[in-house]
Amino acid sequence: MNKHSAxxxxxxxxxxxxxxxxxxxxxxxxxxxxxxxxxxxxxxxxSQQAVSKPTTGQSMDTVETTYGTPIEAVPAVxxxxxxxxxxxxxxxxxxxxxxxxxVVHRS
Length: 107
Description:
- This protein has three helices and four strands; from the N terminus they run αααββββ.
- It has about 110 residues and is α+β, with helices and mostly antiparallel strands.
- The protein has a four-stranded antiparallel sheet with strand order 1-2-3-4, with no helix packed on it.
- The longest helix is centred in the first third of the chain and has 25 residues, at about 15-35.
- The chain is elongated.
């Protein structure tokens, strides 16, 4: 073959640079994924686990029986109706009469 023939294995300098950039990007992405698995749990998530609070799906009656009368009961708003009960350490959000979320207060 002469130097002007197209070879199926020949890559020009621009193609080599693009391929190298693609491999470097892939390597960085994989390295970031691996290091994210070893990341420590933020303090806010640790505090969410440390306080006993209602779980999703519990009824208002179960929450009140377990945790007592709330400090504040904010009436339902919107459709579906969302009610909020505030306790000393956490706030509970209900849709109709079922818990949809519980949030621990920041210290």
